[in-house]
Amino acid sequence: MTFRTSCHQEKRDRRKFFGYKNIVEALFRKDILWKRILRGVLFLIVLWVLSTGALVLMLRFVNPPVWAWRVHRSLSPPVESMPKVRHEWVGMEAISPEMQLAVIAAEDQLFPQHRGFDWKAIFAAVDYNQERERTRGGSTITQQTAKNLFLYPARSYIRKGIEAYFTFLLELLWPKTRILEVYLNIVEFGPNLYGVEAAAQVFFDRSAADLSRTQASRLAAALPNPYRYRIQPPSGYVARRSAWIRQQMGQLGQATLKAVREN
């Protein structure tokens, strides 16, 4: 075969390969298709990690004007007649140390030590829930903050997986004081009642900075279900629970808050 004939044959082969039919066939060849799918999946994963990481990092310095739990409540109110939203953001310095210690004593006593997950409490909750009809949670304050900020009320492995991911990001990118500050400012104390400042004004006619130990323990006692438990005057459950919380606060002491500030 001459050199000229070889060149003509190569051109014909090239035109044939780049014809429409061959391009479609090449695109859908199994090896190329799976590579494209893999690249697309990897791109979406990287995009998700970068965007969520940037969002969490921004919220370390910027107070969220709205959060997922509040949006869900407005779209799907749990009671028929929801009152007007009450919320006022306050910094950590404007929240009584008694209130800070009360939620740690009530919700997550290992908050200063763990990195987002209290595995002992999680496994205990799993064992408890398998043996009883009523369920008990084992979520840490960091997990609850992640849930309130970014997620919705639902029981599924997918939602728990996303919650775990955001919990990891919060512990990685925020100090403990910021986690506790955001938690106390967005947690729900009643229908459309968000944050400790609004709760202190509604229930005790005072600011969050002036909450006493008894008042703080009552607010913390209602957190598992603020729609069910009466804070003021306290229901029987809240009175018993708040007394237990005060006992735990005495055992934890101010060293717990110091450990939070150091992490």
Please name the defining characteristics of this protein.
263 residues, three-stranded mixed β-sheet, mainly alpha, 63% helix
In words, what does this structure look like?
The chain is mainly α. It has a domain at 11-55. The protein is 63% helix and 3% strand. The protein has helices at 3-17, 20-27, 30-59, 68-75, 97-107, 119-131, 141-150, 157-173, 176-186, 196-204, 213-221, 236-252, 254-262; strands spanning 86-87, 188-190, 193-194. The longest helix is centred in the N-terminal third of the chain and has 30 residues, at 30-59. The radius of gyration is 27 Å and the shape is globular.
Q: What is the ordering of alpha helices and beta strands?
A: HHHHEHHHHHEEHHHH
Q: Can you give the helix content as a percent range?
A: 55-70%
* Total helical elements: 13
End-to-end distance = 78 Å
Query: Roughly what fraction of the amino acids lie in strands?
Result: under 5%
Characterize the largest beta sheet: strand count, sense, and whether it forms a barrel.
3 strands, mixed
Adjacency order of strands in the biggest sheet: 1-3-2
Mean pLDDT across the residues is 85
The rough form would be described as globular
The rounded Rg comes to 27 Å
Question: By helix and strand content, what is the structural category?
Answer: mainly alpha
How many strand units?
3
Give the uncertain stretches in residue-range form.
none
SSE map:
Elements: H1 3-17, H2 20-27, H3 30-59, H4 68-75, E1 86-87, H5 97-107, H6 119-131, H7 141-150, H8 157-173, H9 176-186, E2 188-190, E3 193-194, H10 196-204, H11 213-221, H12 236-252, H13 254-262
Helix pairs in contact: 3-8, 5-11, 5-12, 7-8, 7-9, 11-12
